[in-house]
Design brief:
The chain is mostly helical. The chain is 65% helix and 0% strand.
Length: 163
């Protein structure tokens, strides 16, 4: 299997050049599409790895504390889903699951804030958070699909393509 650096290089290469143009013309807003594809660097299918993945290395270079928070956020996901399983790696399905996990976590935090606010006698006007953009989703699905294809094509050759 290719390492994190290879998957990141594939993701970044996808967001440039002629690869983007036909997809953007088909799916809509080019800026949101590119944002979704770039988000693929951090919202990788490899969050199912128990010990972290290449995004931890990238975030650690910016903030050690940020990397620890990132790891805590993704640990339940990693424990629930087996590495390279259909739920974490299969195109489209895994993208929906990862985005659903993020929305669930955000709404749990919002609910806790609302509960604490209510307990402290404040205003409890916190509501459900939902955001969707098909162009963003399409960009993320595109790089997730390339991630899956790379895993399928480079099986057993990880000693040649490593970080």
């Amino acid at each position: 299997m290719p390492g994190g650096k290879v998957h990141t290089a594939i993701t970044l290469a996808t967001t440039t050049g002629l690869v983007v143009y036909p997809v953007v013309v088909t799916y809509g807003n080019p800026y949101w599409y590119i944002a979704g594809a770039m988000a693929g660097v951090f919202l990788t299918p490899d969050h199912d790895v128990d010990g972290g993945n290449f995004t931890d290395t990238i975030i650690r270079k910016v903030s050690y504390v940020g990397q620890k928070v990132w790891r805590v956020f993704w640990t339940p996901y990693a424990l629930l889903l087996p590495h390279r399983g259909k739920l974490s790696h299969f195109p489209i399905l895994s993208t929906f699951i990862r985005l659903g996990y993020i929305l669930l976590a955000i709404n749990l935090i919002v609910w806790i804030i609302g509960l604490v606010s209510k307990i402290l006698g404040g205003d409890n006007t916190v509501s459900f958070v939902f955001w969707w953009n098909w162009s963003f989703f399409s960009g993320l699905v595109h790089v997730d699909t390339l991630h899956w294809v790379a895993d399928q094509l480079i099986k057993g050759k990880e000693q040649f393509i490593d970080e």
